[in-house]
Design a protein that fits this description.
heterodimer, A: about 400 residues, alpha+beta, D-Amino Acid Oxidase, Chain A, domain 2, 8-stranded mixed β-sheet, 10 helices, globular, B: about 80 residues, mainly beta, Folate-binding fold, 4-stranded antiparallel β-sheet, two-stranded antiparallel ribbon, 1 helix
Chain lengths: ~400, ~80
């Protein structure tokens, strides 16, 4: 019995050293996963993660926890499919319960163009072995009987792409699971350590200045999200990223009624019910760039009204909590991963609204790049210079909301 | 509270009535055929954390462009022209 009351200390407080083989800026999912795979797959354990707040305090802890692989372009489908498969066994790999829950994800069409879009998406997904099928209105109703098929009398539901493996997973647990295992393998994690500058010697990054002093590094990875341009501006180059706020909210807990995750491209909204009963509602990014995490009432009002068009029972529920995260948006809605114009400074960024579900694949790929110096084919399409080479990876249609 | 944009013609109105330009490109919008300059103008951004000069278009009001300075950390707006 007494064991129930023992005090757990999940993370050690490490003392910041003077030199590491790899310094990772940012203790979100991407930084933590990269450190974990560096230690586990490549035996590189002299690694420090520098997080200016607490681990998982940015996008990793603010996203809406959806896992899916139903993207649009071949490069992105392959990448997210790998991530999706890794997520399926992540709880076992890290020995940490993540409450993964397969729900089935509907992407509704309320218009002819969206019928074409969702049909094309299903066919494209099938080409790459991703389980997505196109459903007509009757079948949509069978998969999710809670939906108001008239769309509130305004936007009738005509069909949907259905991605049956679509799932949710507890996002804090993903950060903690990676952090605990990385630390067990020898990685040191420093919360409350802020990077204030990069030391660059003849075009090569040799370390970082922090509020705890200078830290030398063989290689530096910026795994920073919304604030990434503060790092690249320190390094003296610019990247195609603009930071936009993204808001979401949950209702009070309600009995379990909604098993599916339901998204609508026409209404720019998605709805799911969490395992503790809260109905979670999210939408697209705010239209203006900003670093402010203040939530806004117009978002709440417009999003609620669209959610009620899909699920009339929501009208009776009260709103429990609304929050905002910062998204590092790229012009093509695909990530920026790889080497930069500064030697030994790498970037895993541009994770916008599509980062959480990419964490395992991004972590293992960036670890491989750092360890071997070779860009894994899985992430080569997302290189920083793709805009200069006119090789953007357009994913706005499938990454724009969640 | 909605972000209110002080339109010089219509007074303070909620942001949904406007289109923001975002960060203005370095060296303006001129196209001079230099591929490198075009690349920087079209794709690269400083993503300013602080005072940012912007253009806004009031599509649901006077349908005119105007300039303002917005602090991207606080969304405080001043110097509207």
């Amino acid at each position: 019995m007494l064991k129930l009351f023992r005090r757990h200390q999940y993370l050690r407080q490490d003392t910041l050293g003077h030199s590491y083989d790899v310094v990772i800026i940012g203790g979100g999912g991407h930084g933590l996963a990269t450190a974990y795979y560096l230690a586990r797959n490549f035996g590189i354990r002299n690694v420090a993660i520098l997080e200016r707040s607490y681990i998982g305090s940015g996008g990793t802890g603010r996203n809406t926890t959806v896992l899916r692989a139903n993207y649009k372009t071949p490069d992105t489908i392959r990448f997210y499919q790998r991530s999706f498969e890794m997520y399926a066994t992540l709880a076992q790999d890290l020995d940490y319960n993540m409450l993964r829950s397969e729900r089935g994800l509907l992407w509704l069409a309320h218009s002819d163009p969206q019928i074409r879009n969702q049909r094309e998406r299903a066919l494209q997904n099938q080409q790459f072995g991703v389980d997505t099928v196109y459903l007509d209105a009757r079948q949509v109703h069978d998969v999710c009987p809670e939906l108001d098929m008239s769309g509130g009398g305004k936007r009738p539901i005509l069909g949907a792409a259905y991605h049956a493996p679509g799932a949710t997973i507890r996002h804090d647990a993903v950060a903690w699971g990676y952090a605990i295992e990385a630390q067990r393998l020898g990685v040191s994690i420093h919360q409350g350590v802020e990077v204030t500058g990069l030391r660059i010697d003849r075009g090569r990054c040799v370390g970082v200045e922090t509020n705890g002093g200078f830290v030398a590094a063989g290689q530096v990875l910026s795994a920073v999200g919304g604030y990434v341009t503060q790092i690249t501006n320190m390094a003296g180059f610019r990247i195609p990223i603009v930071t936009h706020p993204l808001q979401a909210f949950v209702t009070e807990s309600y009995k379990p009624v909604l098993d599916r995750i339901v998204a609508s491209a026409d209404l720019h909204i998605y709805v799911s019910q969490s395992s503790r009963g809260e109905v979670l509602i999210g939408a697209e990014i705010d239209p203006y760039s900003s670093y402010s995490t203040r939530s806004t009432f117009p978002f709440l009002a417009s999003c609620s009204s669209r959610a009620i068009d899909l699920f009339p029972f929501l009208a009776k529920l009260r709103i429990l909590r609304q929050w905002t995260g910062l998204c590092d948006m790229t012009p093509d809605y695909s990530p920026l991963m790889g080497v930069t114009e500064v030697d030994r400074l790498l970037l895993s960024s541009g994770w916008g609204t599509w980062g959480f579900k990419a964490i395992p694949a991004s972590g293992i790929s960036m670890a491989e790049l750092i360890a071997t110096g070779k860009v894994p084919p899985l992430i080569a399409p997302f290189a920083l210079d793709r805009f200069r080479r006119d090789l953007a990876v357009p994913e706005r249609a499938s990454a724009g909301t969640h | 509270m909605a972000l209110m944009i002080p339109c010089p013609n219509c007074g303070p109105r909620p942001y949904g009535e406007f289109w923001p330009s975002g960060e203005l490109p370095e060296g303006g919008h001129a196209v001079d055929g230099d591929v490198d300059a075009d690349y920087r103008r079209v794709w690269l951004r400083t993503n300013i954390a602080g005072e940012q000069r912007e253009r806004w278009y009031h599509h649901a009001g006077c349908r005119r462009w105007f300039s303002l300075t917005r602090n991207t950390l606080t969304n405080a707006i001043h110097d509207v022209v």
